[in-house]
UniProtKB/TrEMBL annotation:
Protein name from the UniProt record: Uncharacterized protein
Keywords linked to the UniProt accession: Membrane, Transmembrane, Transmembrane helix
Listed Pfam families: ABC2_membrane_2 (PF12679)
UniProt entry tagged with the keyword Membrane: yes
GO MF annotations, alphabetized: ABC-type transporter activity
Regions crossing the membrane: 19-41, 88-104, 125-146, 166-189, 196-217, 253-272
Family matches, as PANTHER family: INTEGRAL MEMBRANE PROTEIN-RELATED, MEMBRANE PROTEIN
Amino acid sequence: MGGDLAAEWLKLRKRASTWVLGTVLFLSVLLFGYVLAYAFVATAPDAGGSPDGTSPAAQPALGEMLQDLLPENMVSNLLAATSGPGKILALVLGVMTVGSEYGWGTLKTILVQRSGRAGIAFGKLLAVGTALVAFVLAAFAAGAVGSCGVALVENVPVRWPGAGELVGGAVATWLILTTWAVLGAFLAALFRGTPIAVGVGLIYALVLEGIVASSPVENGVLKGALGMLPGQSSSSLASSFGPTAQSGGDSQAVLLLTFYVVGFSVATSLLLRARDVDD
């Protein structure tokens, strides 16, 4: 397993696409999570419609938005970002890690020269999980830069979250990203390639999960079942951090996301073991 992990990690960190996805995550968190959000707060008119406007902090709603952009609320703001665009980037990373072997025709060579199929599958997934640690660090770096910039512009003291909240937020971010990455790896193994797997993954993440989130379901059992989907579990875990944290759902979300990580990993391994490369 160690040799499989080392080989897959070498390939993953040598690919330009890995660095591109990590850079896109950094820029998306910085741009959408802070720059555009602060621009909206800073340029919003006052509640009375006065042309000159007032300080955003003078208005309750805009004041809360501004508080979310400060360093002490960095963890909740980052989790909101990574449970959105971050999950798409992680899904694409998982698809590319497994699906590109089919597109390049290199899977046969790997199977001949190295260990068993299960070892190769888990080596790939462990390498993806390792890469996502760097993605989490990139997201937190973007959050630190963006939140400090807002604090400096607003001339307020910089107060960082506690160490426990930072560690918990980083682990939660990694778990969310890993869930979507292994889903992408499973889809790539299922469809034996990249294009269809990316398409199906994006349709599920952006369309189907969006419909579920906005559907007015009244049945308690059905509503609970829909709440157990990966996207809903990711949102539930993300909402368990910050000043408006919703308690009670974080433990269930962690268990569900862990179940998805293990389940999709095992399913990916079984697909690689049970099917011929050319089927």
